[in-house]
Design brief:
By secondary structure, the protein is an all-beta fold. The protein has three domains: about 60 residues, Roll (SH3 type barrels), CATH 2.30.30.30; about 60 residues, Nucleic acid-binding proteins (OB fold (Dihydrolipoamide Acetyltransferase, E2P), Beta Barrel); about 60 residues, Beta Barrel (OB fold (Dihydrolipoamide Acetyltransferase, E2P)). It has no helices and 16 strands. The strands form three sheets. The chain has a six-stranded antiparallel beta sheet with strand order 1-6-2-3-4-5, with no helix packed on it. Strands 9-8-7-10-11 form a five-stranded antiparallel beta sheet, with no helix packed on it. It has a five-stranded antiparallel beta sheet with strand order 14-13-12-15-16, with no helix packed on it. Belongs to the elongation factor P family.
């Protein structure tokens, strides 16, 4: 058993007969009344995100998890297949277990949280950023750089990301996986 002071991003808890992963939290101490913790919880079984508020000191049932490095192999339409980098065992997960499936490139190494009680995979944590190649984007208009203008670009995984006007097809860009936003262009 843990309490609200143990809440952190990535913590898995048992709540409403399901296992949820905390993806966002905020400790609030109003001037009047008791403190509380506002959280965003993502169900590891359905992928549904809910908002919940816990009063300060509330007991929460945390789930003990282990992290393992897995390499993404391929997606067959229904399942995403991963291989453990230590013992080469393979697992398959549904798309709802992934935070950003559109940014997952074959060969990418991710961290998978595994419930220690039943050895079931709970969720996939992507690296903080990924480097992907732009496969399609419209050419930028010269002289239109006074504002922070962006244009849509399709990357090699099929995801669409807004990029600055100077990005062209074939450029490699770094994308922040948490928000799915452009970070920088990678020079080779």
């Amino acid at each position: 058993m843990a309490s609200t002071s143990d809440i952190r991003n990535g913590l898995c808890i048992r709540y409403n007969h399901d296992i949820y992963k905390i993806i966002e939290f905020l400790h609030v101490k109003p001037g009047k009344g008791p403190a509380f913790v506002r959280t965003k919880l993502k169900s590891v079984t359905t992928g549904k995100v809910i908002d919940n508020t816990f009063s300060a000191g509330h007991k929460i049932d945390d789930v003990r998890v282990e992290t393992h490095k897995f390499q993404f192999l391929y997606n067959d339409g229904e399942f995403y297949h991963f291989m453990n980098t230590e013992d080469y065992t393979q697992i398959r997960l549904t798309e709802s277990a992934l935070d950003a499936p559109g940014l997952l490139k074959e060969g990418e190494v991710v961290t998978i949280l595994i419930n220690t009680e039943d050895q079931m995979p709970l969720s996939v944590e992507m690296p903080a950023s990924v480097i992907l190649e732009v496969t399609h984007t419209e050419p930028g208009v010269k002289g239109n750089t006074a504002t922070n203008a962006t244009k849509p670009a399709t990357v090699e995984t099929g995801a669409e990301v807004n990029v600055p006007l100077f990005i062209n097809e074939g450029d490699k860009i770094k994308i922040e996986t948490e928000k799915g936003t452009y970070k920088e262009r990678i020079k080779e």
